[in-house]
Design a protein that fits this description.
Helix 1 runs antiparallel to helix 6. The chain is α+β, with helices and mostly antiparallel strands and 263 residues long. Strands 1, 2, 3, 4 and 7 form a 5-stranded antiparallel beta sheet that branches. The protein has 2 domains: 142 residues, Roll (Outer membrane lipoprotein wza fold like); 85 residues, wza like domain (wza like fold). The termini are close together. The protein is built from 6 helices and 12 strands.
């Protein structure tokens, strides 16, 4: 006995409903921090040090020195290039100072200075004290020239190498710069690769959980690599077939199977 058209339609819409319901349930995997309460406050512990980047070997640093005595700065600047900015006169290298393999940088008049292992602020304080011998009221500014991270994998935009504008970039900001995670990227298993003093470390972070705020990988460090791996359903996206057409095809296939079994 053959099924009536009404029965065919019933089974077809039943299949569509099941697929749609399954899609709605899995959508929770697309919502960042979905276990976070509607109203909450998070205290950042050790906020000044939790994201501080230590200077490492092969880092490129911009170091400028200003002061109230222009004549002193001109002497200090000999052979090193002078930078004029408004009323301020500074000295420094346009190309930056390379942190050598032994962790030192070569500063005019000061010679080799140990830089690796210090934070940017610590190096500024040290150099300020050293330059007091040569000029009055020195003001030292240290900046990273190679401050960047890489994002690759299942992102909507174009993954790649991104310069960091400050020392407090979060993993969420880095992913935003890459165009956000695509529908077929795993948000619960983001891989972060970090190298510190020649040691490479890896960690997995879950962007669906509020626990990410407590992770040492929430704030990125220079040269971090963020990889978003694809979900198993990625092949559907690559096939170029819209999801609703896939559902229709499955439904029709089920109907044909039922018809053949009834004959």
């Amino acid at each position: 006995m053959f099924l009536t058209i009404r029965q065919y339609l019933f089974f077809f819409f039943l299949v569509v409903f099941i697929f749609s319901f399954s899609s709605c349930v899995s959508s929770k995997k697309l919502i960042y921090l979905n276990d976070l309460a509607d109203s909450t406050a998070t205290t950042i512990k050790n906020s000044q040090t939790s994201f501080a980047n230590l200077i490492q070997k092969n880092d490129q640093l911009s170091i400028t020195v200003g002061g109230s005595n222009t004549a002193d700065l001109l002497v200090l600047n000999s052979g090193n290039g002078m930078v004029q900015g408004g009323a301020a006169t500074t000295i420094g290298s346009v190309f930056g100072y390379l942190v050598e393999a032994d962790g030192t940088i070569k500063i005019p008049y000061l010679g080799k200075i140990q830089a690796a292992g210090l934070t940017r602020i610590e190096l500024e304080s040290f150099l300020t004290e050293q330059f007091k011998v040569y000029t009055k009221n020195p003001v030292v500014n240290v900046r990273f020239l190679n401050y960047s991270v890489s994002v690759l994998g299942e992102v909507n935009g174009r993954g790649g190498h991104f310069s960091m504008t400050n020392e407090r970039m979060t993993i969420l900001e880095a992913i935003t710069m890459a165009g956000d995670i695509s529908e077929f990227g795993r948000r619960d298993n983001i891989l972060v690769i970090r190298e510190v003093n020649g040691e490479r470390k890896t960690a997995r972070v879950n962007l669906l959980s509020k626990d990410i705020f407590n992770s040492p990988y929430f704030y990125l460090k220079t040269n971090d690599v963020v990889y978003v791996e694809p979900v198993k359903a990625k092949f559907i996206s690559r096939s170029g077939i819209p999801q609703y057409l896939t559902i229709v095809a499955v439904g029709l296939s089920l109907l044909l199977t039922i018809i053949n079994l009834r004959r």
